[in-house]
Design brief:
Blueprint lengths: L1 E7 L4 E9 L2 E8 L5 E6 L3 H17 L3 E2 L20 H10 L6 H13 L9 E2 L17 H9 L1 E6 L6 E5 L12 E4 L5 E5 L2 H8 L4 E3 L2 E3 L16 H6 L3 H12 L13 H22 L6 H29 L4 H17 L4 H14 L4 H11 L4 H15 L7 H10 L3 H14 L7 H12 L4 H11 L3 H13 L3 H14 L5 H13 L3 H13 L4 H19 L2 H14 L4 H12 L3
Length: 592
């Protein structure tokens, strides 16, 4: 039931609309021609909702309102907000939202997801509602039942936004019942709570970045970006995870009239950052005022902590200055004062000139003070590389070359100074001295320098691999040989990598095997899957290996009977996976 009333006299031109739906109704009122204000009232039963609606209509008629024809362009109508869109996701959301109508933009997005698959167009994103979504963000022992209800009633979770449990929710401000205009709040899996979009349309625009929404921002985490790849605008790994990314961007432009953000470079999008900043400027103040009713303002807690720390540090500084006064030639006391000054800076402002002068005083009194030399090298880094080298070489001289952990810092300096040969020399020394350190960054820098200076990175790293047992060197050579399409050599270095990797995880075997398969290096791919199968722990992964081996048995020798054996093993290990049955059924139907 919908009733639309108007009141017109010399002073006022107002409308009043009431729309009854089940056990609740929506009221919209205001000046004719405006959107008006709205509210929703929910009741225990449909009869109570109907009786209250009729009572309000009678009151308005007594005040001089008259029934009128509902405007055809009425955007506040339930009907205008409920196109013939339906799917299980929309139905589940509407049930969870109760009196609040699922906004049209979200319905269309849910329909797209239903037809194309969740987590296939924006990384780790899928639509859904969890009744216990906010339980991790509230200290239920500190809040009353009324406060907990108010918190939960003011937020409507509608999606999961990352791979570790982050969620997105509408914030229902007082008097706002139109979720199409409600701000979007991100609840991070690490506990952060941030305004990310001023409405659902802006949020959908952010999804066209294709990245995970984590801790109040959208980020890509692609380890390898191949500039020469077929997908120069975005990494091929990303396309594998999000096969409907391009389709989604085209759909949102055609269906929603929303222009997608530019396809990302590697990690960040300025457009998304600007949308978040715009939302936070508009909403943050009101949202923070509301949310800090339920738990302490972290900024206030941090300010209290810093004040307490400064009081404590002031006492320590007083004691230290008294010691220096008694023993002014003690280098260690000045070093301790510099360290204390850094702690003070962490809680207020850094006095860099004072810190530098204290470290220099230490070196004046004790030229061989290793910790002070390291601190000075760190502080002057990128400002004066020649001075940094002076300090670093002094530390190397004192510590001994065999135990030195600073070669990569020396290499960085030479790289910035434009001396590639020297930089390579010290990156190689770093790998030899610390084969397991830094996650292979020295190898990556060697490749960058070689590419920039037209050197042969493979020859350099092959030589390094003979001098140091570093798994990261072999890992880098696997990637380089794959790019060079020398798959037999890539496979050899993967075996060496696996031999040195003490914590080899299942997915590493599978990922590398899949790379060979995608590159159509089928002989090496078969070896990889055979190797992977021996090292798998999970039944589902073993099944996948057997399935690929079945495919490769055909590609490498057209051995259909062998392939069928692999398919049968895959089905036995994972009977719920239809693709294995499909592969087997195909050859059975062919008469094998």
């Amino acid at each position: 039931m919908t009733k639309y009333l108007e009141f017109n006299d010399e002073k006022s031109h107002k409308f009043y609309k009431i729309e009854l739906k089940g056990n609740h109704f929506k009221v919209v009122y205001g000046k004719i021609g405006s959107d008006g204000k709205s509210s929703i009232k929910e009741f225990d039963s449909e009869d109570k909702a109907k009786n209250e609606a009729e009572k309000l209509i009678k009151q308005k008629l007594k005040k001089g309102y008259l029934e009128a024809e509902l405007p055809t362009n009425d955007e506040n109508s339930y009907a205008s907000n409920t196109e013939e869109l339906t799917c299980p996701t929309i139905e589940a959301l509407q049930k969870a939202f109760g009196a609040y109508e699922v906004p049209l933009t979200l319905k269309k997005l849910a329909k797209f997801e239903d037809e194309n698959g969740a987590e296939t167009f924006s990384h780790s994103f899928y639509i859904g509602h969890d009744e216990d979504a906010f339980v991790n963000y509230l200290d239920e022992d500190e809040l009353s039942e009324k406060e907990i209800k108010e918190y939960n009633d003011s937020l409507l979770q509608f999606a999961t936004t990352d791979g570790t449990g982050g969620i997105a929710a509408f914030w229902i401000k007082k008097g706002n019942t139109d979720l199409e205009k409600a701000p979007i709040i991100s609840f991070g899996s690490e506990g952060s709570i941030d305004v990310v979009a001023q409405d659902i349309k802006d949020f959908v625009k952010m999804l066209s970045f294709g990245a995970e929404c984590m801790d109040g921002g959208f980020y890509h985490y692609i380890e390898e970006y191949d500039e020469d790849s077929e997908y120069a605008d975005f990494a091929s790994e990303f396309k594998d995870y999000n096969p409907n990314f391009i389709k989604f961007r085209e759909w949102m432009k055609d269906e929603l009239g929303i222009k997608p953000v530019k396809i990302w470079d590697i990690e960040n999008s300025d457009e998304v950052d600007k949308l978040i900043a715009k939302a936070q400027k508009k909403v943050n103040k009101a949202f923070n005022k509301w949310q800090y009713k339920f738990y302490p303002d972290p900024d206030s807690e941090e300010a209290i902590y810093k004040r307490e720390q400064l009081e404590k540090l002031a006492k320590e500084e007083k004691v230290l200055l008294e010691k220096i006064e008694k023993d002014p030639t003690n280098a260690q006391l000045y070093f301790d004062q510099a360290q204390l000054e850094i702690e003070i800076g962490q809680n207020s402002e850094y006095n860099h000139d004072k810190i530098d002068s204290l470290y220099n005083k230490v070196i004046e009194l004790n030229p061989n003070h290793i910790d002070a030399l390291k601190e000075l090298a760190s502080r002057y880094s990128r400002d004066d590389d020649k001075l940094v080298l002076k300090y670093l070489f002094k530390v190397i001289e004192l510590e001994g070359e065999q135990n030195c952990k600073l070669y990569d810092d020396v290499a960085d300096c030479y790289d910035r100074l434009g001396e590639p040969q020297k930089a390579l020399e010290y990156y190689i020394k770093d790998i030899i001295a610390s084969p397991e350190s830094y996650g292979g960054y020295s190898q990556k820098y060697i490749i960058e320098i070689a590419k920039k200076n037209k050197m042969n990175a493979i020859e350099i790293l092959e030589d390094v691999s003979k001098k140091s047992k570093s798994k990261y060197t072999h890992q880098s050579l696997v990637d380089l040989y794959i790019k060079a399409k020398k798959f037999d050599l890539a496979y050899e270095h993967f075996l060496k990598f696996a031999d040195l990797e003490t914590h080899m995880q299942d997915f590493i075997y599978m990922d590398n095997a899949e790379i060979f398969f995608k590159k159509e290096a089928y002989v090496e791919a078969q070896k990889m899957y055979e190797f992977a199968l021996k090292n798998m722990n999970w039944e589902s992964e073993k099944a996948e290996c057997n399935n690929y081996l079945g495919v490769l048995a055909i590609k490498n020798g057209n051995d259909i009977k062998k392939a069928m054996k692999y398919y049968k093993k895959a089905i036995k290990l994972d009977p719920d996976e239809d693709v294995y049955k499909t592969n087997l059924d195909f050859w059975v139907n062919e008469g094998y």
